[in-house]
Specification:
Layout (H helix, E strand, L loop, with lengths): L4 E10 L3 E10 L2 E2 L15 E2 L2 E13 L9 E9 L18 E9 L1
Antiparallel strand pairs: 1-2, 2-5, 3-4, 5-6, 6-7
């Protein structure tokens, strides 16, 4: 477990039609064993470096005129996790996924 972990988020909302969220996550350096070994005799690295990740989410709301089907709102989301494409190691055999970009379309009714 790292000694320090921080999350800081900012959110902006323009009326009812646009949201933007930025999340910064920081995880301090940590050891993978109880002895706090940096590197063992076989050369295995037991200490993981600190890392930080920046995420961005944009959401656009569109009103719909499809009252016939009781649809009220269309929501389009673009989210980018690890915006700066930082590379880090979390656990023993874990590889970071790098930047992830996803889009979503939701209809509220």
């Amino acid at each position: 477990m790292p000694k320090h972990k921080f999350n800081l988020g900012l959110s902006y909302q323009k009326k009812d039609d646009f949201n933007m969220k930025v999340l910064w996550r920081y995880v301090g350096s940590r050891f993978l064993d109880q002895k706090n070994t940096v590197r063992d005799d076989r050369g295995f690295l037991w200490k993981r470096d600190a890392y930080s990740i920046l995420d961005l989410t944009l959401v656009k709301h569109h009103p719909l005129t499809l009252k016939k089907w009781h649809m009220e709102n269309l929501e389009i989301t673009l989210a980018i996790e690890n915006l700066l494409d930082n590379h880090y190691g979390k656990w023993f055999f874990y590889k970071d996924t790098g930047r992830i970009i996803r889009g979503e379309v939701a209809v509220r009714f």
